[in-house]
Amino acid sequence: MDKINWLEQMAQKQPEDAQTWFWLGKEYEAAERWLDAIQAFSKGLTYAQDDALRGEIVAVLSQVTARLQQSAAASAPADAAASPPSPAESRLEGRPDTSGGGTVTELFSGRGPEAAEHGDRSEERADWRDERFGERKPEDDGPDEDDEHEADVRRVPGKQVTAFRPKVHPGLQVVAGGKEPASERKSDIPVITFEHVAGLKDLKKTIQMKIISPFFNQGLFSKFRKKTGGGVLLYGPPGCGKTYMARATAGECRAKFITVHITDILDPYIGISERNLKEAFDKARAQRPSVMFFDEVDAIGFNRSKSSSLTRGLVDTFLHEMDGIDSDTDHLLIIGATNMPWDVDNALKRPGRFDRLVFVEPPDVEAREHIFALQMHERYAEKLDTAKLAKATEFFSGADIANVCERAVERVLMEILETGVERPVRMRDMEEALAEVQPSTLDWLRTAKNYVKYANQGGMYNDIERYLRKHGKHI
Question: Other C-beta atoms within 10 Å of 199: how many?
């Protein structure tokens, strides 16, 4: 028994199963039995409850209809007479069909046995078709709202072809629909790796060892019973690339990157925020290996000793999910980013949760030079001394450097609009813009200096202490 016969029997046993009709239509399509395919897809569309399946059926139905029209137009009347008509062709031409399904025209126009109780509305459909092609009669009232589908009947040499058309309101058209094949789906966000991150060599090595290597050397790490996944907390001044580094880490791991925003979690109703947080973790576990990224994690995991009782339940849920009590967190990497690590609840920073704290320091000289080159790439500018600019921008974050470049470009554009003389961005423009911008990291570093001095008994901020020991005389 071939697949078509088997599916036909399944369709007879389960006439309201949309999936069976869909796959039967696919087999008819592969066998180039266009009319049978149209009939099967139409049946599937009638019984389909899932919107995704309905969209897919509509998409493939339009393709099969187009193939039918092309095939009918290309075939000569002599070719049609040379071969005996198939059951589908017999139905198309109005000849009786032993299956009891009526002609194809009846099936699509609602004039088969099932539609007898509703009366004959062929004249109304003809009027609507006239309207679609600019021939509407003045006294017509438009399409009948009770019909489920409409048919566009056209004449080709030797045959009457009934082309399926999903019912739409006059003046509207279905411009897209259905699921894209997995091979054709493209992400709007490009994959970012460490190659796209300027500088930060020490940070990359730390992440490579603590995060990426366990993903690709599971045998070695399992031999030492070193689990894959867990939590990493990136902290540092604003604008230094914590979010960008998290996305690059996901790109290096070739894992699904899931961003969790504070607006996705917090809700004014009691208990809803906790449920939203649990659902976010469930979604990430279902797509492992995956990377969850919590930006401004201190807003969700705020220190309970400083917060009200309303946020305690959310922090407790966060701790519960990080521990993986009800489900494991293997192959699930959780990255948090914050500008204020001292406001994150201490229980979140203990081993087993965010047990790895990584300091994202302001970019060094090499990184700043690279950032200047990237920011001015493909802009209308003379050759700039990026090394000189990098030396003059100590403590500048990546966002500060981008601000300098934007200000320089704005100055040039303003001059061009005033004088009408076009010119490129010059080194002088960059230096003038640089004089207007102050590094935004200094306030953060001064605050961190106090925490290092008075609240670093456990060595949590040793990375900041080393950085301040090297650069602190300028702060």
Answer: 20
DSSP single-letter state for residue 341:
G
List, in sequence order, the alpha helices (H) in 218-261. Answer: 218-223, 242-253
- Tokens at 187, concatenated: 């992400």
Please state, in angstroms and rounded to a whole number, the distance separating the CA atoms of residues 368 and 401. Answer: 8
Amino acid letter at 396?
Answer: F
**Which residue segments constitute the domains of the chain, with CATH numbers given?**
3-182 (no CATH), 194-359 (3.40.50.300), 365-438 (1.10.8.60), 442-474 (no CATH)
Give the span between the Cα atoms of 339 and 240, in whole angstroms.
10
Distance CA 433, CA 417 (A): 18
pTM surpassing 0.70?
Answer: no
- Do 112 and 101 form a contact (C-beta atoms < 8 A)? yes
CA distance 223 to 219: 6
At residue 301 the predicted structure's pLDDT band, cuts being 50, 70 and 90, is confident
β 149-156/159-166 pair status: antiparallel
The beta strand positions in 209-322, using DSSP E, are 230-235, 256-260, 290-295
Token look-up 């914590």 returns: 242
pLDDT tens, residue by residue, 239-256: 888 888 888 887 887 778
